[in-house]
Amino acid sequence: MLRTKGCQALTGFTGIVRTVRVRAVVAVLPLVVLGACASGTSSVETSATTSTAASSSGPVTDANGSTVPSSEAATLGPEVPAATVVAAAVPADQLPTATGAFGEKPTLTFPADPPPSLQRQILTEGTGPEVAAGDWLVTNYLGQVWNGTVFDNSYDRNATSAFQIGVGKVVPGWDVGLTGVKVGSRVLLSLPPADGYGSTGQASAGITGTDTLVFVIDVVQAIGPNQGGQTDATPQPAPANAPEVTGDLGVKPTLTIPAGLAEPTAASTTVLATGTGPAVTDGSVLAQYVAVSWDGQPIGATWPDASADPTTQVGAGPQQIQIAAGSPFEGLVGVPVGSRVLVQLPAAAASATSGGQATPAIAAVLDIVAQTG
Questions:
Q1: Assuming Cys at both sites, which of 134, 198, 220, 361 could form a disulfide with 138, CB separation 3.0 to 4.6 Å?
Q2: Across residues 343-360, what is the average pLDDT?
Q3: Does the reported pTM lie above 0.70?
Q4: How would CATH label the architecture of 48-223?
Q5: Do β-strands 319-323 and 254-256 pair in parallel, antiparallel, or remain unpaired?
């Protein structure tokens, strides 16, 4: 799968456990203790270089110096700003046609020349809620260069992919074109270079800086920043000699380390409330969490608050967590989606990867919102 954002800095619990577990670093990156890089990296995720080149939206001026909305400006060239709204629709015969129904891999047929603006065509409209900026979308999709190569698709992988929309984590055309779409819809997006990868393109995918890209996207699910686990999950007996967790299900819990509680000597996962969703498998999940170090210091929380910054992981809603054998979260395998769990991790000894400092044990409460990969 083409990686264009990548894990430039390990984000989340897994990242800190693997590499940095230094309290000074945690203070700078308070949520770098949960969630790994997205397990399903994708061509629609943007790199730091690409987002600078391709998503620098801003006013466009005409010859008289008057501001013109970027969606109305000619956007076929790679150097113009990305669109901030979908352009007025061109005639249908100027857009590709797509075979297949929702959930089926499409085949695209192209007219000769691409339109010079960001275009959205709803092929079939769903009946679910409208996608809002900041939502995580669970999707199937296919991406193809105009009249050229299919460079990415999730259908052949037989697995959906999850992306956060409207906050600069994907190519600009997705941020703009998928906001407001109803869940259950099949959408065709036509992205001029400025709304895709800009003048740099993506050489590894065969995308040049002048290519128009077309995506067919099935919007399977939208998960809002405040969504937690199931409010009707079945509570389980509180574990003995463990951190205390209070608060209603489905909302932000309170996590407390009792005075004198012995630190864990091995990683453990305890189900606090059992959901009714499918059992988690290896891959990735979307989860809300609260985490503290064993000395009672807050490490981070995904649950939004008034100061949440949607462009970062700090209080910006659920984050993706990698699950694999040997990871801190391998204990989540088999736990039903919708559950609330307590994860305890032992202290880490001083090492080169931790800056030569030992770090305390960690406790975290996770609400498993969805399996995303």
A1: 220
A2: 72
A3: yes
A4: Roll (3.10)
A5: unpaired
Q: Where does 179-313 have alpha helices with state H?
A: none
C-beta separation of 257 from 294 below 8 A: yes
CA pair distance 94, 87, nearest whole angstrom = 14
- For strand 283-293 and strand 244-246, is the pairing parallel, antiparallel, or unpaired? unpaired
Structural domain spans, the chain: 13-39+227-371, 48-223
**Judging by beta carbons within 10 Å of its beta carbon (0-12, 13-18, 19+), is residue 218 exposed, middle or buried?**
buried
Per residue in 130-161, pLDDT (tens digit) is 999 999 999 999 999 999 999 999 999 888 88
Q: What is the pLDDT of residue 359?
A: 77
The fold adopted by the segment(s) 13-39+227-371 is Chitinase A; domain 3 (3.10.50)
- Report the distance separating Cα 361 and Cα 264, nearest Å: 7
pLDDT attached to residue 50: 38
Residue 155: closest CA among 105, 189, 106:
105
At residue 196 the predicted structure's pLDDT band, cuts being 50, 70 and 90, is very high
Alpha-carbon Rg for the chain in angstroms:
22
How far is it, in rounded angstroms, from Cα 25 to Cα 356? Answer: 13
